[in-house]
Amino acid sequence: MNFTHSVMVSAFIVGVVWSAALLQPQIATAHSLEEAPQAKLVVAQAGGQHGDNTQKLVVSFNAHTMVGNSDTLDIANVGELWQAFNDNTALHARLKKAPTRVFVAYQGFSNDFKRARISIGYEQNIVSLAGTGISLKAGMHTQILAPAKHSPQEIEQAWQTLDYRRPIEQVIEEYQLTENNTLIASSMLVLYGE
Predict the structure, then answer these.
(1) pLDDT tens digits, 142-185
(2) Cα-based angle 18, 21, 23 (whole degrees, multiple of 5)
(3) Could you give the 3-state DSSP secondary structure of residue 7?
(4) Which domain does 22 fall in, by range?
(5) What is the pTM of this model?
(6) Do the Cβ atoms of 13 and 152 come closer than 8 Å?
(7) Model confidence at 14, in pLDDT bands (50, 70, 90)?
(8) Which residues partner with 61 through β-bridges?
(9) CA–CA separation, 169 vs 141, rounded Å?
(10) DSSP secondary structure string, 72-139?
(11) Beta strand pairing status for 183-192 and 139-148?
(12) What is the CATH number of the domain that holds 126?
């Protein structure tokens, strides 16, 4: 029950955050217009609040394969994918042991960041008869949230710190669980493209 509640809260938070993130490219566009002093002020405030990327830790992330639910959909509808993941009794029945981590991967973003290929699942090695799975890309990722117990406000602020002017290859959320499926920590990484 705790895990389900945590997942639903996370889905709600992601929906709120993505709604806020969808507005950011408009700010970036406004920033490029020289004759828009109000837009410049908003961008300057955002830069002051979030700092620059040089202050963020860059970490090596090894390739992972996960098994779960995946679909290309509007970011605002991520709650539907969480529900499908929670209802996936066939997947949960194939678990070899209690999961200690759940991954959420956002890949293949649309140009306006309204749609993405979203995948929610477990590491392939703890699922019997797992099949091919969903690949999480290896590389040097920018750590947006270090592993810790984060409030909904911290997660929302983390999504707002992504640089939507740069190409985003993938965003990975990792939720760490106890054996009783209680959420103990979450973290977030982003892999920017060239």
Answers:
(1) 999 999 999 878 877 888 899 999 999 999 999 999 988 899 99
(2) 120
(3) helix
(4) 2-192
(5) 0.72
(6) yes
(7) low
(8) 139
(9) 10
(10) EEEGGGHHHHHHHHHT-HHHHHTBSS--SEEEEEEES--TTSSEEEEEEEEEGGGBTT--S-EEEPPE
(11) antiparallel
(12) 3.20.80.10
Report d(CA 186, CA 98) in Å as an integer: 17
CB proximity list for 189: less than 8 A, separation 6 or greater:
59, 61, 141, 142, 143, 144, 171, 172, 174
> What is the residue type of 9?
V
User: Over 70: is that where the pLDDT of 46 sits?
Assistant: no
SS3 48: helix
d(CA 187, CA 146): 5
Residue 82 scores a pLDDT above 60: yes
Number of domains in the chain: 1
Rounded-to-integer distance, Cα 163 and Cα 57, Å? 15
| Joined tokens for residue 9 | 């809260």
In the numeric block, which tokens belong to residue 135?
Answer: 């690949």
